[in-house]
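Example record

One chain of 185 residues, shown exactly as stored in the release files.
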Amino acid sequence: MNKNERTFWKNGFLVVADAVGYEDEEYAGVYGIDWPLQDFDEPQPEEELGIPTVRGAIWVATKWDSTYRYWQRCLSRNIKARLLLIETELDYPIVQLPYPVIWEFVGYDVAFMTGNFYSAVQQELIGGTTKSLKHWKSNLNRHRLFSDADVAYAFLQERSAQLGSDLGLETYGEFFVTRVSRFNP
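Predicted structure tokens for this chain:
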């Protein structure tokens, strides 16, 4: 299947900060501390941000104004957080983009999107937990993501074929190619 046959749905917005020990100025994907204000005794953000609580849905915000304010609160607390637009082949949830907000496409991540946003690109490829996929590293762009969906799908296919034979691969959850764009104020 080529990218002309794929449909990436605009699922929603994600605020994520680098995880401790994984600070990486270049990586712009989904892995990290999602919704980082939870560590500051703020209430769970589901209702405020319109995050679906349906099992199997991506845990992304669907309310732009609330998400933008949440991201601003992160920055005011000196949390270096990314505000991302998440697109996958999953058709729930779906959001309309705010206008005239500018999004910068940064690349394709391969991640467990209906769970903890574990990124095979960040953890296994960049982090080096597996040696069997290291040849894919040369395909990463300056944001340390794949620039081309077909390459990301090929990586996912090879990774899936190695499940069970490489102890460095995360086996829990279904991984998706995820189109990632960053808010560009």
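Notes: The radius of gyration is 16 Å.
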